[in-house]
């Protein structure tokens, strides 16, 4: 997640809002973001009902955590890019930017 | 029977993104802003959205 902070101007240039989502509670996300010096985008808590949004997006893992996954949604609410990534790796930002470039 | 590590349900490119409303940190997480609700459809007609799901807070990646 911190790497998106570095690319924030690139997201803004493409009129894209970054939303981080996990099953953590708000206070955990808040503390984590604070430990990184704060983030320029919100972190959303899919915590009640637990994992409900993750299930709808097909990214709730067996152990109850979210996959590391990217969904790019256009201004009409249509999914334009999906990357359900290796959980131990950062999804490639250049591919996300490419997907956003196609929307303009 | 072993539990599958990956769910079977999958969305596809070109489908409508399921709408949701979730409680969130402020617009800028970790900067002491009050909590707020964020609804995906609030961005419709205004902004593209990159949803970044992640396994847990305090994970290194």
Report on the structure:
The complex is a heterodimer of chains A (104) and B (61). Chain A is α+β, with helices and mostly antiparallel strands. Chain A has a single domain, classed as Glutaredoxin (3-Layer(aba) Sandwich), CATH 3.40.30.10. Chain A is built from 5 helices and 4 strands. Chain A has helices at residues 2-6, 8-13, 26-35, 52-56, 93-101, and strands at residues 16-22, 43-45, 68-73, 79-85. In chain A, a hairpin with a 5-residue loop joins strand 3 (68-73) and strand 4 (79-85). With 61 residues, chain B is mainly beta. Chain B has a domain at 21-61. Helix content of chain B is 0%, strand content 23%. Chain B is built from no helices and 3 strands. Chain B has strands at residues 21-24, 36-39, 48-53. In chain B, strands 1-2 form a two-stranded antiparallel ribbon. The mean pLDDT of chain B is 88. At the A-B interface, strand 1, helix 3, strand 2, helix 4 and strand 3 of A face strand 1 and strand 3 of B. Strand 3 (68-73) of chain A pairs antiparallel with strand 3 (48-53) of chain B, so a sheet runs across the interface.
List its salient traits.
heterodimer; A: 104 residues; alpha+beta; Glutaredoxin; two-stranded parallel sheet; two-stranded antiparallel ribbon; B: 61 residues; mainly beta; 23% strand; extended
């Amino acid at each position: 997640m911190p790497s998106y902070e570095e690319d924030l101007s690139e997201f803004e240039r493409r009129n894209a809002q970054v939303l981080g989502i996990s099953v953590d509670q708000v206070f955990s996300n808040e503390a984590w973001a604070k430990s990184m010096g704060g983030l320029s985008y919100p972190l959303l808590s899919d915590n009640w009902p637990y994992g409900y949004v993750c299930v709808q997006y097909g990214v709730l893992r067996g152990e109850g955590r979210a996959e590391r996954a990217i969904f790019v949604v256009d201004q009409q609410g249509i999914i334009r890019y999906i990357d359900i990534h290796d959980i131990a790796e950062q999804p490639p930002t250049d591919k996300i930017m490419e997907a956003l470039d196609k929307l303009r | 029977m072993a539990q599958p590590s990956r769910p079977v349900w999958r969305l596809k490119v070109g489908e409508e993104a399921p709408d949701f409303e979730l409680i969130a940190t402020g617009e800028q997480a970790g900067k002491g802003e009050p909590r707020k609700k964020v609804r995906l459809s609030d961005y419709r007609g205004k902004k593209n959205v990159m949803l970044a799901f992640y396994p847990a807070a305090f994970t290194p990646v």
